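lol ok so funny story. i was supposed to be doing the assay writeup but got distracted and ended up predicting the structure for this chain instead. priorities right. anyway since i did it might as well share w the group, maybe its usefull for someone
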Amino acid sequence: MAEDDDELYAHISPYQGRPAATGGLAKDPVNAPMIRHWCEVLGDTHPAYRGPDAIAPPTMLQVWTMGGLSGSAARSAPYSALLRLLDDAGYTAVVATDCEQEYLRDLRPGDTPAYDAVIESVSPRKTTRLGTGYFLTTRTDITVGGELVGVHRFRILKYRPAGRTSPDGLRPRPVVNRDNAGFWDGVRAHRLLIQRCRACRTLRFPWLPGCADCGSPDWDTVRATGEGTVHSYVVMHHPPFPAFDPPYAVGLIELAEGVRIVSNVVGVPYDKVRVGMPVRLRFQRFDDELTLPVFHATAATEV
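and the output, tada:
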């Protein structure tokens, strides 16, 4: 690191371990209607999430502690001060990089989670394709009656954008790991691959290390035909980011095979996208290293 960056890190590193949010009790207890809505949106029909002995899907962990439009999960004074220090030093851009969740016990309707968030780590200065910056990781501990039931880690990069001006050149890279590397290998070959459990033959997307239905770790893949419909969508207006040109449509696409994927809807104005609209897979090249699947409205679509 340069001398100035050493000095900046000396100022920001002591924020590790300080509160990241005000914490407190969730606005609502774990409840069956929210579990039902979540499962309907995601198409999750697992029997464990239904009936009188239902549990909440583990991936809903953050749902119960989010502040919502009316707030309550307010950013702490130390975390706000940390962000101001980085802004003042020129690290004004921010991008979420990844999150991790750890599940220690099932949540059931009637549980009232409490949460406590801290700034877990502040990295030394790093150089990325987006620019140079610092990775900030917050950790939220979720408890019920004093018992730790889950941990949510969220990491952002506060960075100084690189000198390139092309929006596509700044497009963030997907996180590739051992569980999803095969999917991205397929994308590079212009093939959209869906995992299939070898034991129960259930298709699943996104890629996972094991089957959610039967628990088998063995799987193969099938190639999607590329036909689909818009199951749901949002139009993104904010926040502004150099890699994107809002407003634009992001759709939850139901593939002909029955699984769903989140991707951009292209080929029609953002305000003409509709639920039920037929779309077809295309692979869009953003630069020499990045190709992504997008979904183009078919010629039969009325706009």
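The radius of gyration is 21 Å. The first strand starts at residue 24 and ends at 25.
back to the writeup now i swear
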